[in-house]
Design goal:
heterodimer, A: about 450 residues, eight-stranded parallel beta sheet, two-stranded antiparallel ribbon, globular, B: about 230 residues, alpha/beta, 3 helices, about 10% helix
Chain lengths: ~450, ~230
Amino acid sequence: MNKIDPKGIPHTTPRQSATFTQDINSDIRRAAATGIYDIRGGGAKRKVPSFDDLLFMGASISRYPLEGYREKCETSVTIGGLHAENPIELDIPITIAGMSFGALSGPAKEALGRGASAAGTSTTTGDGGMTPEERGHSNKLVYQYLPSRYGMNPDDLRKADAIEIVVGQGAKPGGGGMLLGQKISDRVAEMRNLPKGIDQRSACRHPDWTGPDDLEIKILELREITGWKVPIYVKVAGARPYYDTTLAIKAGADAVVLDGMQGGTAATQDVFIEHVGQPTLAIVRPAVQALQDLGMHRKVQLILSGGIRSGADVAKAMALGADAVAIGTAALIALGDNDPKWEAEYNALGTTAGAYDDWHEGQDPAGITTQDPDLMARFDPVEGGRRLRNYLKVMTLEAQTIARACGKNHLHNLEPEDLVALTMEAAAMAQVPLAGTNWYPGKPGTSY
Amino acid sequence: MQTIDLSETGLRATNKMLHAQADNTNQTAWEIVNPKGAHAIACGLNAPIEVTVKGSTGYYCGGMNQQATINIHGSAGPGTGENIMSGKIVIEGDASQYLGATGHGGMIVVKGNASSRCGISMKGVNIVVQGNIGHMSAFMGQSGNLVVCGDAGDALGDSCYEARFFVRGTVKSLGADCEKKEMREEHLTLLQGLLDEAGIDADPAEFTRYGSARTLYNFDVDNAGAY
């Protein structure tokens, strides 16, 4: 409302700055009050070009569809057949990404194993070693080999169905980790061989190798220790996808896991999450190009992660050339993370359902990202597993629905030609035409 | 004594033979000749056997070792004995960088010198070096003991947790949050035991103990400059 001053001159409307927004101002006030940067969980919250900016065209006179409920649309994928004696065979191309015991409770890890196994896919350990709950309930378990090597031991390594050497993750390319003291229970402390209650820093670089030449030797060592039986994945953040994919393949990886900036973390500086890395949409094509340039597309598998939420996202990732996807945040939501039924408790923590991201503080009302026995008791791993299985099944059915509409009898047969982009940015990143045109920025042989 | 010529047998077949040894094997003595600096020799062993490598080794010899004793009659490449769980590795020559990285248990003995980042992120291993060690050794060391009969390079024990360091000579500089500590009777006893186990004749009283000052255990903005 415009106020009139005594001289009769109208005031201007109070105007919020587009630069100093309410969010930014609250960041400044928080920094000024505490003297420490904000640490949080989750992935980038900023709006970035994404799979939402792509559409499938579906069938037409020149492309005929498959009958929805009668004609098969396969979803299986084999990962790691290039070098490993026992590649991983998955019924669906949606895997569970690495999340640590420590960041997550034991029952939450169990639920991930239950759900993934029931849906015919794999789950992945994290920066805290392998727990018996997780191994016991996961038919296919990928063992992460991380810079911190917390809980790392050869007995667990030999129990794994695949090994994932983690070079980086999308939320923080080039960053290590931090598990704050309040989440260091006796069990977590023992597994990580550190005193209880201290802040545990996870290194950002591997302690015993640097660079692609060393990586090749590290892969050789891991293969020798595991008798060349299991696939070895290399996980990289979406930083320089063409070169990272090229170097991982040349080092001998069986699969490349590529994680965009929407991919979550248990605890990282907000500034890191929001300002380092590339959107998931932007990293697929350069990685696929690297695979194609080396003649390795479909031989070395590309597993894409970072903000995958639905069967549409799965189908789009596959159409752009990925062999499979991985989900983390979405799996936690399926388990019950950020559920509005805990709204009063989220409010008490100063947040709201959907926005809760202080996973590192261990006060998760849903009992998932915590080591607090009372909160953990709220979470039922059997029910959690059932919910995750349902969600994975729905995503698969959704992806199949789209693939059949595009006339494809396997999700892997989806291709860039099936897609158009809604924005110039998405067209350039996905290298598919802007809707209504036959052009995208950077298309070979074209110019403005 | 089983003798394997690595240049003829090849790495895969050699490691496969060693991995096939069970806890109760009666083939307990193995000799590997012509290693020629190959990588990943005798890694992932898990049996009470003794393997002697006649020559120098490349990266990760004895990596993730369990139970076995590995003697390297030469110098050892980067990451030797990485993530060792138990057993013993004895290097007659010098050791390259990252010796015993993240090692959880067992012992590594170096008769010569060890390079930079010796014992990086150590988690329980005992490392005894008769000569000197390089810079950034025991970075983020969590537990275990690093014994240096010679001198230590820059930034010893940077960001360490509960690992203990015993140095007989000089330390060029201490890393963040690493400090000189009192050498009590229990430490003299511990050190004597480690030296005896390593087969090294030295007087524990000549060593100085270093370890974590524990000021960086919980993040404090006033310590931000130290990180």
